[in-house]
Write a structure and sequence with these properties.
This protein is an alpha/beta fold. The chain is built from nine helices and ten strands. The protein has a single domain, classed as 3-Layer(aba) Sandwich (Rossmann fold), CATH 3.40.50. The strands form two sheets. An eight-stranded mixed β-sheet has the order 3-2-1-4-5-8-9-10. It is globular, with a radius of gyration of 18 Å.
Length: about 230
Amino acid sequence: MTSTDDANKAPAKDPWAFPDVSDLVVGVLGGTGDQGRGLAYRLARAGQKVIVGSRAADRAQAAAAELGEGVEGAGNAECARRSDVVIVAVPWDGHAKTLESLRDELEGKLVIDCVNPLGFDKKGAYAIRPEEGSAAEQAAALLPGSRVTAAFHHLSAVLLKDPDIDEIDTDVMVLGENRADTDLVQALAARIPGMRGVFAGRLRNAHQVESLVANLISVNRRYKAHAGLRVTDV
């Protein structure tokens, strides 16, 4: 027998039901670097409107021309202003300075941070722990008027940029404070054939996700591979 309370409960939300994001403009700060170019290319190839940003507008425009697929290039500020969603793919050593300079342009935007704070020495790659805890938490502290999420950390730029590869066989760990925002990021990831966005917690858990890239670099070097991740049983 079903009680009145049970009957009035809202049905559980399907964790794999995502919003339509096809009409959103995606900006990629650091779009002239390998990771930024790769993400821009894959999203544009999937039908997303993409703008790549750089400190120098002419560099961004040259990168956009090389990428094709309707990608546009602009200076970082214009890229941020014209975009609905902004992916941060800048080098770690320029992360804070870039975001501080774009605080006004990123006001009210959904920001996806994919930066991995890493150092390198004779032993290989190792994780750096920022004062705020992670690159994503640093972004959230620097952009109080933005909705900051974290995703796209574990992707091979080589695979992303290869036009002969039709599917990117990997999961994307998505972190954030608001389910509507993480759903949107998961939906963007799902636009890329073979890719799946998986919710992986709040921003306080971003450090270990960012740090795992150091392990993947070691995997790639040992096995001459372009390793990614798959989450099983979900």
